From TrEMBL, chain A:
It comes from the Bacteria. It is found in: Cell membrane. Belongs to the UPF0718 family. The keyword Ligase does not apply. It is a multi-pass membrane protein. It comes from Lysinibacillus halotolerans. Keywords: Cell membrane, Membrane, Transmembrane, Transmembrane helix. This is Permease. The keyword Aminoacyl-tRNA synthetase does not apply. GO terms for cellular component: plasma membrane.
Automatic annotation (TrEMBL), chain B:
Pfam families: DUF1980, DUF1980_C. This is TIGR03943 family protein. Keywords: Membrane, Transmembrane, Transmembrane helix. NCBIfam families: TIGR03943 family putative permease subunit. Coiled coil: none annotated. Residues 9-121, 163-295 form the DUF1980 domain. PANTHER family: UPF0703 PROTEIN YCGQ. The chain crosses the membrane at residues 12-34, 40-58, 91-112.
């Protein structure tokens, strides 16, 4: 039963090695300081990790809970039959659900495994970290008690998530999980006593934690490396039109891999360098996809799907955010 | 009864995570990684680790099959059950898990320095275009007087809580006192006020400490006296710095900590007015035990 896992693991190992090799190869072009910054890198790495781990733990506990207590039958009765309705519902549930982009990956995987359609899972994956009370409040505060940015972030983010999930619903029919062998029949055969199910829930959470956190660790390390060795100003070399700066801010959001609850303050610190449109792109794009959660997604979904999802998120967020500049 | 090596390794790893988190909190090192207001959620994480550790302990000596009553022999949903064959990729994945713990115990957390500061981009381009920003029309009091953390469902404790009264008092000190004291608890608010209306404070004396940071193209008498402000964790640090001028500034190395006293003035930098401190006195000090500053959060009535 470990064969499929072995091959999937090799893929992510290869991607990781490519990243490392690429980083070392290109580093002379933008490295600003020698290796004496390693302690700084280690500190940033650990701080991203220490900050993210509580949210991942909560995520795996919820995933464990879903695994043991929620059945395929429940899910079938909850999800509307029509695709559009299902996408709508998943985006709204995600918006009400407080999560960060790393904590939500194990939850989405478990939901899809339990029979939630892929497009609904994607809607939930995108709005969960982006729209929630903590993110709204921190955005509101970071932009000087100005509701405009917080509202734009939620509005554009919600519409973009709807669009992405809808496109996904037309592109993919199967659930795109790496391990499709999951048999629907077995999970409801037995109904063990409650204490055993609770124990099972925690055991699942432990396995899930071991599964997820290695990707979080790799992602945090790469993001910390970029912060330590790459000057933000190198990004400005690409040009200074609104479209350029929007792309720059999206790239920044991707590589910095900040938790969605903290990124508003970082975004706000760029508002003097870049127009509002570009800042908005940073705020909407980052929670939907970033480096550390791409690596986590690659461990759950087929590489081709993650790639398509990445392209979709990038183009749709770019388009929608650009449209707001005409408002 | 059978000894499960994989479960044993997992228990050990969870155990070291427990130790790591307990160590972080008991020594206070956690403050060098994240904003203290996130301490509680991090303690919650330590609690969850302890719970998971004990549950994992029982799995080490489990009769075969018993552990997976919820998940029969046909279980294929591909997660790490820990009872598969031990192979290279597993070894790699456990090493990845242990890696941050090793570096965490082996190395002291570094204090962010001028290298990181220069990666964050020019300080002055960040502050002085504020006036042109359409989103920046609120007053300072509006900006800070917000009670977002008191009723939040995440229990947060912030070292930098000030009551409204204290906060107002401190703010009025900025306008009235003879010397502006850039203390840690109010640093961010004062800094913002100084940069929003630099001309208003011309001629006032100021006392401030921070580390030396330099940008390309500085004169020999110029440096930036800076602090890092932490919102969430070290990764989101932003740099706050004030241009400072005195003879001999070029002799000071970056990252040296200084305490200075001087008179505020304005200068033109890249077409924008920014505050500058004409230092009248300065001395080198040790790096403070709490090198970072945090945004002010005022208590609601």
């Amino acid at each position: 039963m470990s064969y499929s896992q072995k091959s999937s693991f090799n893929l992510s190992t290869i991607i990781f090695l490519l990243l490392v090799v690429g980083f070392i190869f290109f580093s002379p072009f933008f490295v600003t300081e020698e290796w004496s910054s390693l302690p700084q890198l280690n500190t940033i790495f650990l701080s991203i990790l220490i900050e993210a781990i509580p949210f991942v733990l909560i995520g795996v506990l919820i995933a464990g809970f879903i695994q043991i207590f929620i059945t395929e039958e429940h899910i079938k009765s909850w999800i509307p039959k029509s695709k559009v309705k299902a996408v709508f519902m998943s985006c709204i549930v995600g918006a009400l659900f407080p999560a960060c982009e790393c904590g939500i990956v194990p939850i989405v995987r478990k939901l899809i495994d339990k029979g939630v359609p892929l497009y609904a899972g994607v809607g939930f994956l995108l709005t969960g970290p982006l729209i929630n009370p903590i993110v709204i409040l921190s955005t509101y505060m970071a932009f000087g008690n100005d509701l405009r940015m917080a509202l734009l972030r939620m509005g554009v983010g919600f519409v973009a998530a709807l669009a992405i999930a809808l496109v996904i619903s037309f592109l993919f029919k199967s659930n795109q999980l790496k391990h499709k062998e999951h048999s629907v029949t077995k999970s409801k055969v037995k109904h063990p006593p409650l204490y055993q199910r609770v124990k099972g829930m925690f055991e699942h959470s432990i396995d899930e934690f071991f599964d997820m956190s290695k990707y979080l660790i790799i992602g945090a390390f790469v993001a910390a490396g970029l912060q330590t060795f790459v000057a933000a100003q190198a990004l400005l070399a690409f040009g200074d039109s609104v479209y350029h700066s929007t792309i720059v801010m999206m790239a920044l959001a991707f590589f910095l891999s900040l938790c969605s609850e903290a990124d508003a303050f970082i975004g706000a610190s760029f508002r003097n360098l870049f127009p509002t449109t570009s800042i908005l792109a940073f705020l909407v794009y980052g929670p939907m996809i970033d480096l550390k959660n791409t690596i986590m997604l690659l461990s759950v979904f087929k590489a081709k799907f993650v790639f398509v999802l990445f392209l979709l998120i990038t183009t749709i967020v770019f388009l929608f955010v650009s449209l707001t500049s005409f408002l | 009864m059978k000894f499960h090596l994989q479960h044993f390794i997992k228990a050990v790893i969870l155990g070291v995570f427990v130790l790591f988190f307990i160590d972080l909190h008991s020594t206070g090192t956690i403050m060098k990684y994240i904003n203290p207001k996130y301490e509680n959620i991090s303690k919650l994480a330590a609690g969850i680790f302890i719970l998971l550790f004990f549950i994992q302990l029982f799995r080490i000596f489990q009769r075969k099959g018993k552990g997976h009553h919820h998940c029969g022999p046909s279980c294929h949903h591909g997660h790490d059950h820990g009872n598969e064959q031990f192979n290279l990729s597993r070894l790699f994945s456990y090493s990845v898990m242990v890696f941050p713990i090793i570096t965490g115990f082996a190395f002291e957390p570094a204090i962010l320095n001028s290298t990181i500061a220069s990666n964050k981009g020019s300080i002055f381009s960040q502050v002085n275009q504020k006036e042109t920003s359409p989103l920046n029309e609120t007053t300072l009091t509006d900006k800070e007087n917000i009670d977002i953390y008191s009723s939040d469902h995440v229990p947060l404790v912030n070292n930098n809580y000030l009551s409204n009264e204290e906060y107002e008092k401190k703010l009025s000190l900025l306008e009235q006192s003879e010397t502006i004291q850039m203390q840690d608890d109010i640093f961010g608010s004062y800094y913002e006020a100084l940069n929003e209306n630099p001309t208003e404070y011309v001629g006032r004396t100021i006392q401030m400490s921070g580390f030396v940071f330099k940008e390309d193209g500085f004169n020999s008498n110029q440096l930036v006296l800076s602090r890092f402000m932490i919102t969430h964790c070290i990764a989101d640090a932003s740099i706050l710095g004030i241009l400072t001028e005195f003879e001999g500034a070029n002799t000071l190395k970056e990252d040296t900590w200084l305490e200075i006293e001087g008179v505020l003035d304005v200068t033109n930098y890249g077409g924008y007015e920014i505050p500058v401190i004409k230092a009248t006195g300065w001395k080198v000090i040790d790096e403070p035990t709490e090198p970072y500053v945090y945004p002010v959060l005022t208590l609601a009535e």
